[in-house]
Design brief:
190 residues, 10 strands, 28% helix
Length: 190
C-alpha cells in the first residue's frame, strides 16, 4: 500500500462519523481500500475510485454554490475524480474553478468534512458508455465570494448559481442526494 493510501486510510479511521449512514460509508470505503490498495486513485479501476466534492458556501453561510449537471439533470455540488492526484483538497478546489470560474476559494477546514459512497448509474460521457460503478467521495467545505463572476462549463453543466440553503431542496431532483446535502447542512450548524 503506497503512502498516500495509508494516509487516507488513517484519516478515515480517525474521522468521527456524524450519523449511522456516514459510519457505514466509512466502513465500505475502508473495505474498498483494503481490497484495491493504490488502485483506488484513478478511473482505471472500473469497480470504483476516489472522488471529491466541494460544499461551497458564501460568507454568511446561507447560500451554496451549485451547478446544474448535464448528466444528472439536477443542481448538485461541485467535484470530480482524483485522477491520480493525492492532494484531495487541491482536487476539490480545481474542480470548483473548472466548473464555476470561481478562483478565490477559502477552505473552512483543510480536512474533508463528509464521507459517502455513491452508485453511479450507467451513462454516456463524451460519446462513450460508462458502466455503473462506485464513487468513494470525500467532501471539502470551501467559502467563496457570492459576488464572484460565475461561468458554467458547457461540457459539464448548463448553469451555475448560488442557491439559498433554506430552499435548496426545491432545486434538487436527485432524491438520493438529499440526505447527503441535509447532513452537510446539519454539520454547518453544529
Amino acid at each position: 500500500m503506497d503512502k498516500a493510501t495509508i494516509k487516507l486510510k488513517q484519516q478515515l479511521l480517525n474521522f468521527v462519523p456524524f450519523d449511522e449512514e456516514e459510519a457505514v460509508n466509512i466502513d465500505v470505503f475502508l473495505q474498498f481500500i483494503d481490497g484495491f490498495h493504490e488502485h483506488i486513485w484513478t478511473r482505471d479501476n472500473s469497480v470504483g475510485h476516489v472522488t471529491v466534492s466541494a460544499w461551497v458556501t458564501n460568507s454568511s453561510k446561507d447560500k451554496v454554490l451549485m451547478a446544474h449537471h448535464n448528466i444528472y439533470n439536477s443542481f448538485a455540488w461541485l467535484g470530480g475524480h482524483a485522477d491520480g492526484e493525492y492532494d484531495l483538497l487541491k482536487v476539490a478546489q480545481k474542480e470548483v474553478r473548472e466548473e464555476t470560474g470561481v478562483f478565490q476559494l477559502r477552505p473552512i477546514k483543510t480536512d474533508f468534512v463528509d464521507v459517502c459512497s455513491m452508485i453511479v448509474k450507467p451513462h454516456i460521457k463524451n460519446n462513450h458508455p460508462v458502466a455503473s460503478h462506485l464513487h468513494f467521495n470525500l467532501t471539502y467545505w470551501l467559502e467563496a465570494d457570492e459576488k464572484a463572476i460565475l461561468q458554467n462549463a458547457p461540457a459539464e453543466n448548463s448553469a451555475v448559481c448560488w442557491l439559498p440553503i433554506d430552499r435548496l431542496f426545491d432545486f434538487i431532483s436527485e432524491e438520493h442526494m438529499k440526505p447527503v446535502y441535509q447532513r452537510l447542512i446539519q454539520k454547518m450548524y453544529k
